[in-house]
Design goal:
The chain is mainly alpha-helical. Helix content is 59%, strand content 8%.
Length: 422
């Protein structure tokens, strides 16, 4: 189900302030456009109501209907049911979670950020991925950050420590692990630095977009601040004690947010590893996962839109494995020869270099899912027609009928149905 969800997001469509719009919204597609918009609205209303309350639902619905709106426009559209202070407070919360975004211009307006709304529905998946790729400490860091949307590094670490604090000397070792994990998450681009969103900024300044470059944190100051919190007892009552000053802000206490693109790239890598395990076996899936993990931690072309990861050497792959499989070279050969193009080899020193061609794998997965749908709707005859057209491209009706080894009555019954259904 998760794999189908991420593949569906790659369909040729775009999200706008009015819902889902296809490039050629005509005929049957126009009806489907309205159906998808209604589904998005109902689903996201449910998510917003559970996380932020009815006020957030009303504000986002106003943006969905009107597009970019100002604070006065929102107040006017709600007929004065909520005061401007309550609206501003709700906008601050939505900005912190990147549910909405600031629209630059002469008039200060706000619009829906569909990436932020989609992230709400994927938080459990993202947390599970962080546990798999970075360990339990990463999950402890991500959960409070998802809960607050945007937070300072010192506050994230304190909230993460409170999740597993035992009130003993082990908390000091745990604090070191959390700081090291936070440094790794920022180095690999999973967390990005932004400007804090506070009540004085919501109506005056533009929300800063996350930087595409990796961020380096100061581990010494963060560890010192966290250990002071441990010494004070590590309780909720002491959470604000010994925090860095806000005015002037500490340069080392960065404000961090989750990087949606990197999280989606992790999700893609996990799907590819599962495909390798499904097509070969679990050992092949583990090898594929380790190779992608090396590319990810090295920050090598792992963006969600990358066509392929950069090359990983044979030596790097061996070092990443806890136990080297007895037939590692045989498994690599199986991955290289798989029809899904799970792995490609490039010439290099010490055993060659390997890349994962993301674009080719996604194409094969999309075709396979399309074949499953065609087989359900049009049975085996429709599946054979679909496969020949995918392989050969455009064919006339007569040429297609000659290529198919199926009864003529089945061909003439199925083909018009497939054309009518688009």
């Amino acid at each position: 189900k998760d794999r189908l969800t991420v593949l569906t997001s790659l369909v040729v469509c775009r999200l706008s302030s009015t819902g889902v719009q296809y490039r050629e919204p005509c005929g049957p597609e126009r009806t489907y456009h309205h159906t998808m918009s209604d589904i998005f609205v109902e689903y996201f209303d449910h998510l917003l109501k559970n996380r932020f309350g009815d006020a957030a639902v009303a504000i986002v619905r106003s943006m969905h209907i009107r597009g970019s709106v100002s604070l006065k426009d929102i107040d006017r559209s709600l007929s004065g049911k909520m005061g401007q202070r309550k609206i501003a407070a709700c906008l601050i919360s939505l900005l912190r979670h990147r549910i909405i975004r600031f629209t630059p211009g002469d008039t200060k307006k706000y619009d829906i950020n569909f990436e932020g709304i989609q992230m709400l529905s994927r938080i459990p998946i993202y947390c599970k991925l962080c546990l798999l790729f970075y360990g339990d400490a990463a999950g402890d860091i991500l959960l409070p950050l998802f809960a607050t949307g945007t937070a300072k590094a010192s506050e994230i670490l304190r909230a993460a420590l409170m999740r597993s604090a035992k009130g003993s000397k082990e908390d000091y070792r745990k604090s070191e692990l959390l700081v090291d994990t936070l440094a790794i998450l920022t180095k690999t681009g999973l967390l990005q630095c932004v400007k804090a969103v506070c009540p004085t900024e919501v109506c005056d300044e533009e929300q800063e977009r996350p930087s595409s470059e990796s961020t380096t944190i100061s581990k010494t100051e963060l560890l010192d601040s966290l250990q002071k919190f441990v010494s004070a007892g590590g309780k909720v009552e002491k959470f604000r004690q010994n925090l860095p000053a806000t005015k002037p802000p500490s340069l080392w206490d960065l404000v961090l947010v989750p990087n949606i693109d990197t999280l989606n790239a992790l999700w893609r890598d996990r799907i590819i590893a599962e495909v390798a395990a499904e097509r070969i076996d679990e050992t092949a899936g583990d090898i594929m996962s380790r190779l992608l993990c090396v590319a990810n931690t090295s920050n090598r072309s792992t963006h969600i839109l990358s066509a392929a990861c950069e090359a990983v050497s044979h030596a790097e792959l061996i070092r990443s494995l806890k136990e080297v499989p007895a037939y590692l070279d045989s498994y690599i050969t199986l991955l290289l020869d798989d029809p899904f193009c799970l792995l490609e080899q490039q010439p290099g020193i010490a055993g060659g270099m390997y890349i994962c061609p993301y674009k080719k794998i996604i194409k094969h997965l999309l075709v396979r899912h399309a074949e499953n749908i065609v087989q359900v709707l049009f049975e085996n005859s429709g599946l054979r027609i679909f496969r020949i057209l995918v392989a050969e491209g455009y064919l006339s009706c007569e040429a297609l009928e000659r290529r198919l080894l199926i009864p003529q009555k089945d061909f003439r019954r199925v083909l018009p149905r497939m054309v009518a259904n688009g």
